[in-house]
Amino acid sequence: MRAYGLLNLLLEQAPARDLLGADAHIQEGDLAPVRPQPTAENRDIVVALVDGEATLKRFFRERNRIRFQPENPNMEPINVQPGDDDVIIVGKVIGIFRDLH
Fold first, then answer.
1. What is the layout of strands, in order, in the sheet containing 3-6?
2. Which CATH class is domain 3-93?
3. What are the sequence ranges of the domains in the chain?
4. Alpha-carbon gap, residue 72 to 13, rounded angstroms
5. Tens-binned pLDDT, residue by residue, of the chain (101 aa)
6. Interatomic CA distance for residues 90 and 101, integer angstroms
């Protein structure tokens, strides 16, 4: 993923492997404005760093874990323990920009 700074927002470019499903309407190459924030609510689409690698997925806080759920059916969820130092929520996706040409 590439990040671009813009008025206290980040823009993440969605790579093919992190594509979300039709419900999220995110396609390869879309730019996703991300509001920097260290927390998320269930079902938010977030950018997170997991073991130093950026990922674009839905966030779910469950009983004994945090789950980053892809909507791409070919990908597995990422499950981590709350408080895991190798996991950072970068921010919440607040929209999508797509080149129409």
1. 3-6, 9-13, 31-36, 87-93, 45-50, 53-61, 66-69, 78-80
2. mainly beta
3. 3-93
4. 16
5. 555 555 566 666 666 565 556 566 777 778 888 899 999 999 999 999 999 888 889 999 999 999 999 878 888 999 999 888 889 999 999 988 887 77
6. 30
